[in-house]
Amino acid sequence: MSAVPEPIEQPYTPRDYVAGILASASIFFGAIGVVQTPMRIIPASVVLALVAVIMSDRVRTLATWAVGLNIVWWMLGMTVAVVTSNALY
């Protein structure tokens, strides 16, 4: 026992759920963007991930990973598109 009360964990709000879905969707669309047109799909998925970062503190780690993954996938998608002579946009 301690004299300091433990903080009560607040339940998830709808904002947290929506931010989690946005972050997950941006990861999915970023992965699709590697093999499709990376200049159209991946910047939109980065915007989705950034909105999720701003939206909720609880899923900020997932959303931050989504931003980082999308940046890596953008570079990989651009490389794949140039090497295979596919369209960038």
Strand content: under 5%
String of helices and strands: HHH
Cα radius of gyration in angstroms: 17 Å
| Unreliable residue stretches | none
Q: How is this structure best described in words?
A:
The protein is mainly α and 89 residues long. The chain has one domain (14-83). Helix content is 72%, strand content 0%. The mean pLDDT is 91.
Keywords:
mainly alpha, 89 residues, elongated
Helix/strand layout:
Elements: H1 14-35, H2 38-55, H3 60-83
Helix pairs in contact: 1-2, 1-3, 2-3
Briefly summarize what is shown.
The protein has 89 residues and is mainly α. 72% of the residues lie in helices and 0% in strands. Helix 1 (14-35) runs parallel beside helix 3.
